[in-house]
Amino acid sequence: MKEIRFLQENHQLWLRFEQMLDEKQQDTHEPDALADLFVRVTDDLSWARTYYPGSSTEKYLNDLAARAYLLIYKNKRERRSRLLSFWSEEIPLLMRKNLRNLFITFIIFGLSVWVGIVSASHDEGFVRLILGDGYVDMTLDNMSKGDPMGVYKDENQFVMFFSIALNNAKVALFCVLAGLLGWIGVGFLQFRNGVMLGAFMYFLSSEGFYREAMLTVWIHGTIEIFCIVVSGAAGLAFGRGLWYPGAWPRNKAFLQSSREALKIGLGLIPFFFLAAFFEGFVTRFTGMHDVMRVIIIAASLFMMVGYFIVWPLILGHETSRLGRVVADNQGDEQPKGRMAAARLYILQSNSRFIFLISIAALLILLPVLAIIMHFALGQTAEMFTYVFFLLCEGLGALMLTLAIRNRTTREENELSIRRFNKRKRAGYEQ
To answer: Distance (Å, rounded) from C-alpha 165 to C-alpha 388?
Structure first.
């Protein structure tokens, strides 16, 4: 085909595409139409590069395709659901990538707990060396009163909640930044925290309070300790790009690894506040029945293992498998590819729905649990505490509404996808 004929056959399409790229007209066109025209123009650009290299037609189409690319990809707005997909998809997929780091930090932390227990059992002064004389003397005084966990009852509940959350965030931040020193920095902080935990548990057990140590401390400790281990995994990811850049330039590898570590650190924020909620509003109720405490500990462990280990494995496996099917079948051009794309969309939508329902359940049930404990044990709290509980209930109701809306939107989108595929199949058959 001669170049002049090529121009005659396609110039109307290109002019239309230029009009769509006009800044004044960008918001008046359907995204699907813009994407279809972009594909057509890139095809024409490939043809021009093959048969008319160096021509003004090739330069014109290249400029047109570049403008469209910037409009579609570079300058696109973030979806409103990005905040939701960050916790429901991005963080689990990042944890799937860093599961080995998580297991390494878990082993280091577990060994350090054992070192703390053994050291405290062989040296009476080790506990004071690690925990400090003031904390040990205060705990011994509470033990003499028959309330070894009295340290959790001294402060205002609301103030204690925020101070604990900030302290947990500070510890996790140090664990992440320690990745700049490689596994040595991360290992040192994991070892330090593990030894402190081991010494503290042995101290309570040696004084005859083993049951309280296991059933009270781990109400908040399950989530708190798990977050410290996860932040250690983020620290290893942070230092990986600096010390082991691989085939990438060191600055690019470090930028990528620091971005991953930052995302994991941000993903831990809700769990910091959840652990602080338990420590500030629930752990203080030492008169709680043992069955209730075991249920809270087991549910916390199930949630943390499910979110940071099990769900990343499931989501990573299914996303990779369905993504390969879509790629092998050219996206929506083959029935198998369309089915895989639909299943991938359903998987992502279900993950968001489950995440919203879980957050809504926590925000609604935890304040109710704390209020029940207040009345059952005849205790009262400050007005700010009850206002905070009311705010949590409102946020829980909002999350529940968003979950129902997300579910409804997903069903509508699934119906739209089925209708679109049916029309496209009819067009193929025709």
So the answer is: 15
Those residues with Cβ within 8 angstroms of residue 167's Cβ, 6 or more apart along the chain or in another chain: none
Amino acid symbol at 49: R
Structure tokens at 392: 């949590």
Residues 6+ apart with CB under 8 A from 331: 337, 338, 341
Tell me the two tokens of residue 282: 């629930």
Q: Give whole-number Cα distances, 254 to 236, 249, 374, in Å.
A: 12, 9, 49
The residue type of 422 is K
**How many angstroms separate the CA atoms of 221 and 227, rounded?**
10
Contacting residues for 391 by C-beta, under 8 A, at least 6 apart: none
Residues 6+ apart with CB under 8 A from 143: 207, 209
Work out the burial of residue 193: count CB atoms within 10 Å of its CB; fewer than 13 is exposed, 13-18 middle, 19 or more buried.
Answer: buried
Gap between the Cα atoms of 304 and 218, Å rounded? 13
Domain definitions of the chain by residue range: 3-74, 83-328
- Model pTM score: 0.71
Report residue 105 as tokens. 């930090």
Q: Got the DSSP string for 121-185?
A: HH-TTHHHHHH-HHHHHHHHHHHHTT-TTGGGGSS-HHHHHHHHHHHHHHHHHHHHHGGGGTHHH
The string of pLDDT tens digits covering residues 158-204 is 777 778 888 888 888 888 888 888 888 999 999 999 999 999 888 88
- Residue by residue, what is the 3-state secondary structure of 33-79? HHHHHHHHHHHHHHHHHHHCCCCHHHHHHHHHHHHHHHHHHHCCCCC
pLDDT one-digit tens code per residue, 239-276: 888 888 877 788 888 888 888 898 898 889 889 888 88
